[in-house]
Amino acid sequence: QEYLEFRKERSRMLLSRRNQLLLEFSFWNEPQPRRGPNIYELRTYKLKPGTMIEWGNNWARAIKYRQENQEAVGGFFSQIGELYVVHHLWAYRDLQSREETRNAAWRKRGWDENVYYTVPLIRTMESRIMIPLKISPLQ
Asked: The whole model's pTM is what?
């Protein structure tokens, strides 16, 4: 009964909802519990239809440029729901370390090539900064 009341209350607060079934890129790290404190960036890329294989092939080579600080948490792509959507999840100590890590990637030979080949595949992109809840295994 309590759950049904909660559902009714929640439905008044919910403005929209969308679901996706995501698969993990095979070349990416599997998400592991992390000690904190960290912030997380969820980058979402909506790709042009038919470009997922090209995107994956480029990122399979490019991920090595972003592994040094263990900031790469997970990389996923949509299988059900809106298709040709990619999510990258990154961990940083704070916004300053995010900026430093991202700038360091640009100084590595080859990173700019990855960007050059993947940017034309993107229709839209979004970045969200998230702070984990105390119950999250990603701290």
From this structure: 0.84
